[in-house]
Structure formats: structure tokens, C-alpha cells
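Worked Example 4.2. Consider the chain below.
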Amino acid sequence: MFPDDQDPYGLKQLDHAKTRATAMGGAKKVEKQHAKGLLTVRERIEGLVDPGTFDEQGLLCHSDLPEAKDKTPADGKVVGYGAIDGRTVFVSGDDVTVLAGAGGRRGVEKLIRNAEIAAKRGYPCIHLGDGGGARLPDIMGSVGMMSMTYPIKGPCRDRQVPLITTIMGECYGGPTWEAAVSDIIVQVKGSVMAVVGPSILEVATGENPDKEDLGGWRLHAEVTGQVDLFAEDDRDCLQLVRKALSYLPGNAGEMPKVTPCDIPKDLKLNRIFDLVPSNPRKTYDMHHVIDMIADPFSVLELKPHFDGSLITCFARLDGHVVGFLANNPMVTAGAMGPGACEKATGFICLCDSYHIPMIFLHDTPGFLVGKWAEERKMPLKIMTFIEALHHSTVPRVSVIVRKSYGMAHCNMSGGNMENEQLLAWPTADISFMAPLVAVNVAFGRKLNGVEGVEEMKKAMLTELTKGCGPWDAAGANLIDKIIDPADTRKELIRTLSRARGASGRAGMSQRKLASWPRMF
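Applying the procedure from the previous section yields the following C-alpha cells:
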């Protein structure tokens, strides 16, 4: 189209085109979104990035189907660059006001191409999910399916840059695939993440589940464990994204950012004795121990509702980012099940891929056993957890607080696991199994009622209990230090400071786990 006399440089035409594109699906659909208490994709992006930093790409893109050209501003995908805390990021989002946020050929191509460029340039990528998969007119038929299928030519997910995906509406297909390969997923309560929606399910299988049952936040929080963080609303979700990103480096070539900390390195944790009972039969909440060890208000727990026997969280220690894996005696007495193994394996992969040292806090009687556990492939889960440790190359420090029994001792990075340092409190209790269980196994039921057997059991229990303490292991140089619990923070800071080396970068990972899946 040639410029006319009234608009020789086409600036009015450009302004008109931009206005139409940024109007999204129109005022009525925007109002409908607001009536649900939700933000539009453009409001979400503006709320996520630093003010005035968003630079959109492909604004004037639209559907390649002639009949949909005028109905698809930006072809339903908003993409571009912005800054979070001054750091450049790539952001993409589904526009639910345009054909329910479903992906069209050009919009999807735009998103993938720009995300690939951002990853090559070393910028974190964030996707704001709120879409219903691919558009049927675009993907139906052999040409549609084969032209829009998942592209193997694209870069594999090798964690060169952090990828965070949010679930902010009804997400099926595309946004779900994006989430499944992300480092961190944040889901807004009331949203849905599933392969397909109820309407397709009903036609295809006759099944008609409630949306919440199909992919609501409780399902992913408590059953699947696929989602890491949960938000009350859109704005809370965006703040969680900003917070989660603050623990990660911009890309695999960088170390995580160090935050100034004014807490003394040698601070005594005298109140820690109020948190952890010396009696091993009494429970306590390990969350409080982590909060006391870490820098104030620095803990961000991932998958908080999924198998609570193991806590996985980011935190800062003297300003440096660390990852905690800690048994929680408040849940199944700290005995880990298949969910805890999955949770641990994924978290180890995440930490190792982004040069985050790991701290293990032991207080576990072992793994959950029995028919239920075997049906859930417990041996495979345990050994995959071990394999992740085997391949990890970031510094690892272990602290044995109380119980550390059986194979779980190994999985919690115990003896023979090449820790940077293995520490123990005087209350550490380390063995193949609990002494009382060992006594009962040794004597069995056949000797019950035999004269003198109870005295024999007591003598054996006393001997075994004595041998489970940390003293013999320290004497055999299997424990590096038995420490005053009040010095735990100081000892961890010292150890990790040495691990970073003179250059400050000696703690960088070899990233052998970067291509491992996020869950198993």
C-alpha cells in the first residue's frame, strides 16, 4: 500500500495498526476478563517487568488464515523483552481474549523463534500461560498437524537459561507442554493445567470430570507434585515469579546473584535448642530450623504440599543462594516415600544446573516400605535419587541432626557421598535401622517368654544405641566435624565459602544433570 498525501510516511497507519493490536480481543472480552478478577496478558506483563521496560516483538503479527486475519491481533501471543530487578528477561504470554488464547500457526512460530533467540543470548525466559492449546482450523488435517507439531529442530531443554511458566487460566496443550519442561511452575488458585479440557474428554472418552479434579491447584500440589509454587491471584503470581527468579542466575554461564547480608557470619543460634528436642521420639518442624539457619526472610519452599516428609527450598546463607533438602519429622516421622524421592531428584537437577550448592539436613528413620511403596516403584525412585547425587557436581554439605538410618542416610548425602563436608550434631543417630527394631529382628518372636530374654534385649539395645552415636564415626574419620548445634550456620558459611575457592567461582557445576527431566 502506497502512502497517501495525508500520511506520507505511513505513521498514522502504523499508529492505527498498533492501537488495533494492543486492544487485544476488544473491550467486551477485556471486561469479561476483569469481571473474573483476572488481568489481561498485557496487564500481566506490565505487572511482571520493571516499569517501562517491555519491548514487544511481533505486535502486528496475525493469523495466516484469511478469515481470521482481523480477529487475531498479535495472533494471540504477546512476546518481548523486559527487565526484572534490572536484569533483561524474555516474556511471552497467551492472550485469552483472542480466540480463548489458543495457539495459531504464526503466533506459535513467533513465540518459539523469539524464545530461541533469547535463550541463545542468555536471557531467562518466562511464559504466562492462559490458553486452550492449538486452534482447530490451524492444526486439523495432515498439513495442519505436521506443520504445527512439536518442533524437534528447536533447542532441547538443557537449562542454558532459567525457564519459568505460570498457569493463570484454563491451560491445555501448549501452555501445559511449556510448563512440563520448565524449571519452576507457578499456578494461580482457580486455574487449570491439563493435557486436554473436559469438553474434549467427554467426546473422546465419555469422561466428564470437574476442572479442579482434572488439573486444579490441589491436584498438582498434593498428588502430582508438578507445580512448585501457588498464588492467590494474578498479582501474587507475578510477585512469586520475580522472587523465584532472584535465586537463579541469568544463564548457565553465571553464578546466582549475591545479596548483601548484615547478619554476623558467626552468629550463635542459641534458640535452636528450643526447636529440636533431644528426645528422638519427639517431633518438631524442620521448617523452623531452616528459617533459623538461613538469612532472615530468604526461604522459598518449592512443592510445599507434595510429600512433606522432605522439604526442598531455596534460601540465602550470608547472601549466597543455597538449596536445602531437609527431612521433616512432622510428616511420617521424616520417612521418605516415592514423592519425596521425585521431589529430591528434580531439586538436585535444578540446583546443579544453576550452580546452587546444596545443604542436607538429616532426621529420617529411612524410606517408607511395604506394598503401597512397591506399587509406586520405590526401588527405582530411590536409585534415581542416588544417580542424581552421583552426577551432581556443585558443593554439598550434610548435617546429621538426629536420625539417619538405612539407605536414606546415603540418599541424604551421608557417608561415602563425597560431600564438601559432613557435619553432625552430638544428637546424631546413624545406623542401618533403629536399634530397637534391630533388637526385635535379632531375637524374633520365638524367644518371647524365655527366661532372661528381656535382660538380653536391654543389654543389646544399650550396646547398639551407643554404637549409633556420631563418636565412633568421627573417630574413624567418617564424619568431618561434630559441632555445637548453635554453630550450624557459622559452620555452613565457612564450608561453602571455602568451596567457592579463591576465584569465587570454584563452586560452578559441570552441569551433568542439565538435560535430565524435571520429574521422574
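Residues 90 and 125 are 5 Å apart (CA to CA). The mean pLDDT is 92. Compare this with Example 4.1 before moving on.
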